[in-house]
Amino acid sequence: MMSTSASTRRRARRAAATVGTALLLTGVLVACGDDGAATSGDSDAPGGDGLTTVTLASAPLSHLAPIHLAQEQGIFAEHGLNVEVDTESSDLVSVPSVLADRVDFATGDLTTLIVARAQGLDVKAVVPASASTGVAGEDYGALVVDGDSGITRPRELAGKTVAVNSLTNIAAAAAREAVSADGGDPDSVRLVELPFPQVPAAVSTGQVDGAWVVEPFLSAAEAEGAVPIGWGFTDLAEDLTVSAWYTSGAFVEDNPETVEAFRAAVREAYAYAREHEDEVRAVIPTFTEISPEVAESITITGWRDEVSRVAAEKLADYALRDELIDAAPDLDGLILP
After folding, report:
1. Which residue ranges form the domains of the chain, and what is each CATH number?
2. For this UniProt entry, which residues form the secretion signal (predicted)?
């Protein structure tokens, strides 16, 4: 039988997911106007240069490097596109903008998109935005503790406080799975929400016992004495799509050629990035607050051409287990074929 504390935590996670979805729906309705009808976009209409402009929304993190390089190298232009990147819209609140046709594509972690789809939001994952490297010890996300804490492995965080940037996204799943994979009780971990930039100080001062964090904040935490003890991305799935570029079902239906051109251009951008890591590291400081010195040393996300269906199925199972959703989502509808 589930303990009372575990049951309470699961109800809290379910409530957080429900509130999050309600906020997303509210945001969509507000953005659409009183009648709920979204304004139609003109993404398929070429500009004076013959290129179709598409707007992208994403947090200013290193996974955007191939996008910037592709624009500079003319890769998007070769596919008939010009991209405009909005880094002011957080990944956590971009769904309303996409569904209300305010931006054409945005990045979202795969768990968030699975929950949104299960709640009836018509999001479509087009192509990965970031992926695990697949190598424990050499990934861009990790479960960390203070080096003087005496904690040396994930299962020792059972019953302790661990920070994640959201209780209902892939970070929470990764933190819990790192503990579970090491034989610990994931339901006994007390997860608290904390923005990634605050993690290094929170870990070093003992505000939390551990934290799930990604680059460049992983390197920043290590610089303040934190040590990685778990690599939850590799525990979640062998080939893990962490986040995806997504759009709305309506945009796919109205702009099929633009969607396919965008996907093809992003895949070509990834091929270029894989062959030019020095350029990737050099461009990161131009659109982030990451210094050139840090950009030279951080672990860079993996880049994949396909959203992993196997990973999506596993993340959906975790979301069901953790009661973020109450029914299996339509993954065929979520992942663009």
Report:
1. 13-132+239-334 (3.40.190.10), 135-236 (3.40.190.10)
2. 1-31
